[in-house]
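Priority: medium. Attachment 1 of 2:
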């Protein structure tokens, strides 16, 4: 293929470089368009804009393909451990056993939270949303590790990254336990990452904690499936905040805030609330399908549609099977699973959804699993954040290593042109 394109504007021709990715994706490099032609491009919502070159995750929304560092999501969800996937995303290769042992030991070493942060946590009202608390505490971590702010050295980066991988699960468990009125506990360094998370979250103060394989396997799968998704809203936020050299913890805190929204990670909470509302309204899925298609009604079928997938979200397929397995294994008969399956069936046959290529996304079935694990709906997005942590970190690290410039988009101004100030009495 030609490696240059040309555009003609007012009889002037400008050359534009063509960039081709390793999966043959093609992009026009317009970075010199302003200096060469005094032109910018306009693309609200960045629907057609590549913000960077990245070697972390490949996704083909038309074919429903998702790969981390070249490995298919289906294979990773089936065969890998979350910590292996975290290593893969952040450092580029699957770890050897020695590398994995070191990662795990280094995390255990750092899985301690300054007691003063516990005081900050306890000062939040019980009604505070867990995502707000997690974002604040993540930002708060900077105060206890100020050296982690503006770092470029590989060793300092490793240290900051490991601190986050170690401390965020403790904070997630604490946010959950506080909501449940349970004492805040540390985990058990003899356990693996996900087993430890399960114990930190679910152990009772008066009872020996017995690991449940189904719970651990479901958590492991969910964390892996959420671990990265290239330049989505929260990851782009992490990259753009990090591009100002604000520091890793502050960048991740911003990512958590971006994930909170209902159109992004907050959709998993919104899905369960929607399914429960349909259930308590008599289970009439057709009524809600009509509402979703009615342009005068703000209601949307939560957990459906995706900016990039115009085919099945491969993660949704895996989670749907896992939801069946978990409910069966735990002996739970939840009517909202049937409502979800009913909605999916109707949507896949409905012209509105077919024409717009709206399929179930990752959030459609994940909440059903979290609910079965006794995780309250407001905690669902926190679980998503924990899964997404390695992805955010990997992107932040890639951005710093590639020495990307500060993110600063342009705009087309549509406001008033120059006018003279008028005195207040004459307005
Ligand atoms: N229910 C009903 N109609 C929908 C839906 C939906 N869930 N999603 C999109 N549409 C319609 C939309 O009204 C528009 O119709 P028209 O062309 O007639 O105006 C068309 O489909 C295209 O939608 P869009 O909003 O322009 O698409 P987008 O790429 O800007 O938005 C989305 C993608 C995910 C925000 C959107 O599909 C949505 O709001 N879905 C529900 C929320 C959700 O499940 N979010 C989780 C996304 S996956 C996980 C994550 O990112 O964290």
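Attachment 2 of 2:
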């Amino acid at each position: 293929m030609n490696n240059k394109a040309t555009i003609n504007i007012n009889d002037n021709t400008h050359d534009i470089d063509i960039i081709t990715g390793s999966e043959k994706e093609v992009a026009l490099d317009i970075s010199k368009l302003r200096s060469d032609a005094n032109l910018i491009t306009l693309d609200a919502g960045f629907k057609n804009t590549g913000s960077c070159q990245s070697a972390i995750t490949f996704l083909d929304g038309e074919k429903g393909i998702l790969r981390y560092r070249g490995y298919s999501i289906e294979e990773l969800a089936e065969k890998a451990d979350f910590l292996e996937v975290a290593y893969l995303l952040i450092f580029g290769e699957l770890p050897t056993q020695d590398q994995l042992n070191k990662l795990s030991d280094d995390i255990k070493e750092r899985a301690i939270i300054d007691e003063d942060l516990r005081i900050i946590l306890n000062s939040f009202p019980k009604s505070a949303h867990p995502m707000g608390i997690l974002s604040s505490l993540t930002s708060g971590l900077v105060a206890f590790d100020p050296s982690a702010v503006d770092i470029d050295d590989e060793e300092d980066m490793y240290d900051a990254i490991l601190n986050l991988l170690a401390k965020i699960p403790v904070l997630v468990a604490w946010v959950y336990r506080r909501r449940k009125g349970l004492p805040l506990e540390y985990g058990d360094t003899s356990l693996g990452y996900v087993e430890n998370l399960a114990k930190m979250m679910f152990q009772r103060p008066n009872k020996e904690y017995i690991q449940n394989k189904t719970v651990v396997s479901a958590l492991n799968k969910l964390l892996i499936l959420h671990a990265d998704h290239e330049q989505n809203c929260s990851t782009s936020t992490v990259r753009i905040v990090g591009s100002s050299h604000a520091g890793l913890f502050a960048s991740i805190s911003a990512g958590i805030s971006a994930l909170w929204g209902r159109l992004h990670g907050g959709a998993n909470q919104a899905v369960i609330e929607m399914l429960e509302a349909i259930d308590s309204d008599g289970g009439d899925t057709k009524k809600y399908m009509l509402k979703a298609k009615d342009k005068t009604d703000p209601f949307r079928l939560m957990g459906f549609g995706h900016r990039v997938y115009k085919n099945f979200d491969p993660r949704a397929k895996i989670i749907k099977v896992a939801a069946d397995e978990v409910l069966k294994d735990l002996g739970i008969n939840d009517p909202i699973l049937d409502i979800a399956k009913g909605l999916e069936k109707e949507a896949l046959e409905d012209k509105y959804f077919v024409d717009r290529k709206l399929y179930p996304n990752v959030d459609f079935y994940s909440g059903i699993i979290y609910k079965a694990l006794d995780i309250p709906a407001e905690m669902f997005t926190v679980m998503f954040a924990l899964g997404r942590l390695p992805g955010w970190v990997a992107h932040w690290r890639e951005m710093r290593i590639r020495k990307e410039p500060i993110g600063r988009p342009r705009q087309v101004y549509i406001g008033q042109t120059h006018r003279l100030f008028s005195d207040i009495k004459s307005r």
